[in-house]
Amino acid sequence: MIIATGTASGKSLSYLVPALSAVLDGGTILYLTPTKALAADQLRALNELDLPELRAATFDGDTSFEERAWVRKHANYLLTNPDMLHRTLLPRHANWSAFWRRLRMVVVDECHGYRGVFGSHVAQILRRLRRICTRYGSRPTFVLSSATASEPGTFAMRLTGLQMAEVTTDASPRGATTFALWEPPLTDLRGEGGAPLRRPATAESADLLADLVIADIRTLAFVRSRRAAESVALTTRAKLQDLVVDVGAPKDLPDKVAAYRAGYLAEDRRGLEKAFRSGDLLGLATTNALELGVDVSGLDAVLIAGWPGTRASLWQQAGRAGRAGQDALAVLIARDDPLDTYLVHHPEALFGRPVEAIVLDPDNPYVLGPHLCAAAAEIPLTRDDLETFGPATKEVLAGLVTDGLLRERATGWFWTSRERATDLADIRGAGGAPVQVVEASTGRLLGTVDEPSAHTTVHTGAVYVHQGETYLVVELDLESGVALVEAGATDYTTFARDVTEISVLESLRSHPLGPGELHFGSVEVTRQVVSYLKRRAQSGELLGDEPLDLPPRTLRTRAVWWTLPTSAVVPLAEDGLDLGGAAHAAEHAAIGLLPLFATCDRWDIGGVSTELHPDTGLLTVFVYDGHEGGAGFAERGYARALDWLTATREAIASCECERGCPSCIQSPKCGNGNEPLDKAGALRLLAVLLSADPQET
Ligand SMILES: [Zn+2]
Ligand SMILES: [Zn+2]
C-alpha cells in the first residue's frame, strides 16, 4: 500500500496503529527512512508512547558496537536506512534471523526521496529484502508513505516489485491558503551575452519578509542554500533597522528575524525553534532543513524563494502555513530560470492535476548487476529468483558470469570471491571514486567532488567555492584523485567549456511528432572539458579562455531525441533563422522544463543539439540521463513529450526578454558559453514540431 497525501494529513498514524498492534502480537517492524534525522524523530515519538512491549531502536552508522548487539537481540521496531540494509542487515542476515522470522511490516517513509539512480538502487535493495524474508518464512506487508505525486501506485510498484494499493484521498481538516505566484522584475543589470537579469528571488524574499514581520505575521522563508538563508535574514534585519531609525519603529524589531539552517548546533536550532513557536521570533529564513521531521508548523505565511524542485516539496513547504481554522498565505517567488518562469505564468501546472511522477529505473544494468552479486553472496541465486529482480535479470546475469564476477553451476549463480559483494554498489554515489579537495599548504581535506563533475568544477585553474570561502585549484591530479587548492580571493569566476558528442546506439521506441519523429533509446555520450573561461565576477566581462588537457569521459545512457526533416527546416533557414542557435535554445529550455514531468533536477540531465547529426542525418535535439545506464528521466520525457515540449515553448514565449536570458533559454551549465542561441528561432522550431496532428503512442 502507498499513502500519498499532504503534510500533516495523518500518514504516520495510519501505519503506526497496525505496526504497534503487530508488535504487541509478537511481531517485528522494519522502518526505513532516507535520513538519520527522520529516524531520530520517529524514535522520540515512539518512546513517548511509553509502551513496555515496544522496544524501538535506531540502527545506523552512529550506532556503537555494544548498542548493535542489544538492538539485534531485543529490538522489535527497527528504524534504519537503505544504506544499512544494503551493507549490514542483508549481508549478515543470519545474525538477524529472529528478527526476519517475525517481520510483519516494512514501512518505507518519505519514499518520494527514492528517485533516479538512488531510487533504482533502493528498489533492488528492497527486492533483496523480500528474498531474505522468504528465506525466513515471513511475508511482511509493505507500507509506503509519500508526499503527493502523480501515479503513486505505479511508482510504488517499481520501487518494491509488488502490486500496490493507492491511498490518495486527504480528508484532514485545514483552513484556506492563499497562494501567490511572484515574478521579480527585469533589472538594468546585464549577464552573459548582454542578457537582462531579473532581481534575485532572495532580494524579493527579504522585502516580503520585512513587510510581513512589520504586520506581525509569523513567516517562514524557504531558500535554496545556507548562504541565501544568512543573506535573506541579514537583509531583512537591515531593512527593519532602517525603519527603527527613520520612523521610530520598536527598537527590537530587527531582532525578530533570524536564519536557521543545517550546520547549526542542535541546541542553537532548538533555541530558534522555541523562540519562533513562542512568537519572540517572527521571521525565519531557512534552507529546507525544516522539511524533514522537525515540528514547526501552524504559521501565518510561508515564502518560497525559487521552485523547490518538486510539487511534493512545494506542498510540504507551503503546508507549514495555516493554523487550525485560520487562513494562511504562501508565496512562490520565481528565480531566473525557465521552469520558474513557466510556473509563475501557468498556475494550472501547479494547482491542476499533478503531472510530475517519481521516476526510477530498477532495470538499469549498472544498478542491477552489483545487487545481483550482493544477492548471490547473501544466498546463491536460483532460477526462481529471476522474476524477483525484473526482466533484465537474465541478460545481466550472463554478463556477470562472462566478467567472472559470478559462477554459474547447475543449481544457480554463486558469488565465490573473498571481496564484499556489497562494495560493488555505490548506492548514493555517481560512479567512480570521488576526488578529494585538499588545501595544499595545510594538507586539510576540504571536501570531495564526485568524479564526473571533477573535470568541470576542480580542474587546474578553477575557482572553487567551499562554504563561502574562495579557493584556487593549483592542480587536479586525476591519477591520485586529488585536487590541490589554495585559499585566496579572486575577482573572477571560472567556467569550464566542453565538447560533447553523442552517438545513437539503438532506438528502442519511436513515433511521429508533427512533421518530425520522436525517439527513446540508448546513446553514448562523450564529453571532454577542453578549456575554461575567466569572467570578471561583477560584470561577467570575459578575461580569457585557458586551454585544459583532460581525457574524454564516455557515458552509456538513455536519451529522448527529436528530429525534423529537411523539408520542414529549409523554409525556416530561408527566413534567416539560425537553425543551430534555435535547436540549442530549444534544448536548454527543454532541459529546464523536464523536472516538471519527472522528479529530477536540471543537473541530472544533459543535452546535445545539432543542425545535422551524423547518425540521423537530420536536425536533432537530444536530452539524456546524466547517469551511467540511465535513470528513467529521458524515458519519462518520451512518454510525456507533447506536454513537455508544449510547456517548453510556452516558457520561452512567456519571458518578456528580447533575445534570451536565464529565465528562458540560457543555461547555467552550458558547456558552450550559451552560444549560439536564437530565441525567436526556438519558438518557430518548436511551433513546427508541435504543429501537425501529433500522433500519440
Ligand atoms: Zn528570457
Ligand atoms: Zn548549451
TrEMBL record:
Pfam families: DEAD, Helicase_C, MZB, WHD_HRQ1. Residues 1-167 form the Helicase ATP-binding domain. It comes from the Bacteria. One of its GO terms (molecular function) is helicase activity. InterPro entries: DEAD/DEAH_box_helicase_dom (IPR011545), Helicase_ATP-bd (IPR014001), Helicase_C-like (IPR001650), Helicase_put_actinobac (IPR022307), HRQ1_WHD (IPR055227), MZB (IPR018973), P-loop_NTPase (IPR027417). Keywords: ATP-binding, Helicase, Hydrolase, Nucleotide-binding. NCBIfam families: DECH_helic. This is DEAD/DEAH box helicase domain-containing protein.
